[in-house]
Design brief:
This is UDP-glucose 6-dehydrogenase. By secondary structure, this protein is an alpha/beta fold. The protein contains 17 helices and 14 strands. Bound molecules: nicotinamide-adenine-dinucleotide.
C-alpha cells in the first residue's frame, strides 16, 4: 500500500520503517530539513535498537523515502499518517499546532480520497478539528474530494520501539460509520493484516474512544509508578523494603508485576505531558481528575528524592564536593532526555555548589544539548562529560545512578570502591541488593530500601 507518514520522529520514523519492512511503499515527510538530509545520507536521528538496519534495508529496496516536499507527500499515500509532536502548551493542554498544520497541508494539496490517520497522541475531539481543518482547505479551493479521519494511537515504547511496533499487544483504531469511514476501516484492516496473523489484536471502536484509550493507558502506567514511589518513600521511613513489597503484591494476578518499580520518577516525552493533557481535558468539562493531579505532584517530588538523599548525607553546602552520575536518558535504550530525572538531579547538585562527572551509553550528545538549555555557562563548566562509567568516578564522593542501563547492572565493584573517594552509592533505580552492597563494603542508598532488620 502507498503510505505517507507526516513527522519523522520516534513514532513516525519507526512506523514508516516498519510499514516499509512489511512491503509497503512509504513516503516520510518532515519539516526539519537537517533530519531529512541526515536520513537521506544514511544516518539516523535517534537511537532505537534495530531501527538503523530496517531503514537502510528498505531505503535500498526503494520502499522508504524521506523528503520535505509537502505536495509530493500528499500525492503519495492514500493513507496519510500524522505522527508529529504534541508537546504541552503553557497551560498543560496538548499543543495541536503541528497536527493542525499537517492537516491543513493535506487539505491544501489532496485531489482524491484520503484516509487521514491521527497517530500522534491527541486529546479527545481532535479528529473533529483535523476534519474541520482539511474541510476548510478543500472548500477554499472548491475541491470536493472525500476523506475520512481515523484515530490510531501508538503504544510503542522508546528503547523497544521496533519490537513493539512489529509485535503490538494491541492495535487500537477508531473510525466513524460514514461511507468514507467504512472505506477507511477496510484500508486500515488491510494495512494491519500482517500484524493479526497469529491472533486478532485490533480493537475497533469509535474515534473518541480510541483517542481516549491512549491517554487512559499512559495515565494508568504513570499512576502505578507514582503509587510505588510514594510507598517507597514511606518504606524508607518505616524501615521496610519496597522491593520485597513489590514482589509481595505483584504476585497477585489482579495487580501483576509490571510497572511497579520505585525509582527516581518518570520522565520522557509521553507520561508527563499526557497526564497533564488528560487533566486539562477534564478541566474543560469541569471535572477535576484528583488521582492524576496526585500522580503528577508525586512525580515532581520524586525527581528531587535522589538529590535530597545526597544533601541529607553530605549537607546543604556541596561546594568542593564532586559526584559521579551514571545514566542521563529518561530510561535505558534511548537518547531521549525530555523530562529526564537526571536533569533535575544535576541542577540540584550544581545548585548546592558541587561539580559532577556524568556518563550515559548513548545520550551524551543529546544531554550536552539539553543541559546547555537548562543551565548557565558557569554551571555547564562544572559538568564533565566522561568517556565511560569508570571515567566518572575519580575524586567523586559518591556514585549516583539515575538510569537503569544494562551496562550498569553488574559493574566492577572493587574498581568503583577504589576509584571513589568514599564507597557510597545512591541508586535511583534499585539495581543492587542492599545486603550485597553492605558486604562489598559500600554505604548504599536505594529508593525505599532502608530495611531495619536484615533477614
Ligand atoms: N515517543 C514515544 O515514545 C511515543 C509513543 C507513543 C506515542 N507518541 C506520540 O506520538 C507523537 C510524536 O511523538 P515523537 O516522540 O515521535 O515526536 P518527535 O518530536 O520525535 O517527532 C515529531 C516530528 O514531527 C516533525 N513535524 C512537526 N510538524 C510537522 C509538519 N507540519 N509536517 C511534517 N513534520 C512535522 C518534527 O520536525 C519532528 O521531526 C506525539 O503525539 C507523542 O505523544 C510518542
Amino acid at each position: 500500500m502507498k503510505i505517507t507518514i507526516i513527522g519523522t520522529g520516534y513514532v513516525g520514523l519507526v512506523t514508516g520503517a516498519c510499514l516499509a519492512e512489511l512491503g509497503n511503499d512509504v513516503f516520510c515527510l518532515d519539516v526539519d530539513q537537517k533530519k531529512i538530509d541526515l536520513l537521506n545520507n544514511g544516518g539516523i536521528p535517534i537511537h532505537e535498537p534495530g531501527l538503523e538496519e530496517i531503514v537502510a534495508r528498505n531505503r535500498a529496496a526503494g520502499r522508504l523515502q524521506f523528503s520535505t516536499d509537502v505536495a509530493a507527500s500528499v500525492a503519495h499515500g492514500c493513507l496519510q499518517f500524522i505522527a508529529v509532536g504534541t508537546p504541552p502548551d503553557e497551560d498543560g493542554s496538548a499543543d495541536l499546532q503541528y497536527v493542525l498544520a499537517a492537516a491543513k497541508n493535506i487539505g491544501k494539496h489532496m485531489t482524491e480520497f484520503k484516509v487521514i490517520v491521527d497517530k500522534s497522541t491527541v486529546p479527545v475531539g481532535t479528529a473533529d478539528r483535523v476534519k474541520a481543518a482539511v474541510q476548510a482547505e478543500l472548500a477554499a479551493r472548491g475541491d470536493a474530494s472525500k476523506f475520512s479521519v481515523v484515530s490510531n494511537p501508538e503504544f510503542l515504547k522508546e528503547g523497544a520501539a521496533v519490537e513493539d511496533f512489529m509485535r503490538p499487544d494491541r492495535i487500537v483504531i477508531g473510525y466513524d460509520g460514514t461511507p468514507e469511514g467504512e472505506k477507511a476501516h477496510g484500508l486500515m484492516k488491510k494495512l494491519y493484516t500482517p500484524f493479526n496473523r497469529n491472533h486478532e489484536r485490533t480493537f475497533w471502536m469509535d474515534v473518541r474512544s480510541a483517542e481516549f484509550t491512549k491517554y487512559a493507558a499512559n495515565a494508568m502506567l504513570a499512576t502505578r509508578i507514582s503509587f510505588m514511589n510514594e510507598l517507597a518513600n514511606l518504606a524508607d521511613q518505616v524501615g521496610a523494603d519496597i522491593e520485597a513489597v513489590r514482589h509481595g503484591i505483584g504476585s497477585d494476578p489482579r495487580i501483576g508485576h509490571s510497572f511497579l518499580y520505585a525509582g527516581a520518577g518518570y520522565g520522557g516525552s509521553c507520561f508527563p505531558k499526557d497526564v497533564q493533557a488528560l487533566e486539562r481535558t477534564a478541566r474543560q468539562y469541569d471535572q477535576d481528575l484528583l488521582i492524576l493531579r496526585a500522580v503528577e505532584a508525586v512525580n515532581d517530588k520524586q525527581k528531587l528524592v535522589l538529590g535530597q538523599k545526597v544533601v541529607k548525607r553530605f549537607g546543604d553546602d556541596l561546594r568542593g564536593k564532586h559526584f559521579a552520575i551514571w545514566g542521563l536518558a529518561f530510561k535505558p535504550n534511548t537518547d531521549d532526555m525530555r523530562e529526564a530525572p537526571a536533569r533535575v538531579l544535576i541542577k540540584q547538585l550544581l545548585d548546592g555548589g558541587a561539580t559532577v562527572a556524568v556518563y550515559d551509553p548513548v545520550a551524551m550528545t543529546e544531554a550536552k544539548r539539553v543541559l546547555a538549555l537548562d543551565l548557565s555557562a558557569e554551571e555547564m563548566a562544572r559538568i564533565r562529560f566522561a568517556t565511560s562509567p569508570m571515567d566518572t568516578l575519580a575524586a567523586a564522593e559518591a556514585l549516583v545512578i539515575v538510569t537503569e542501563w544494562k551496562a550498569f547492572r553488574s559493574p566492577d565493584f572493587d574498581r568503583i570502591k577504589s576509584s571513589l573517594k568514599q564507597a557510597i552509592i545512591f541508586d535511583g533505580r534499585n539495581l543492587f541488593e542492599p545486603e550485597v552492597m553492605a558486604e562489598a563494603g559500600f554505604e548504599y542508598h536505594g529508593i525505599g530500601r532502608s530495611i531495619l532488620t536484615r533477614v
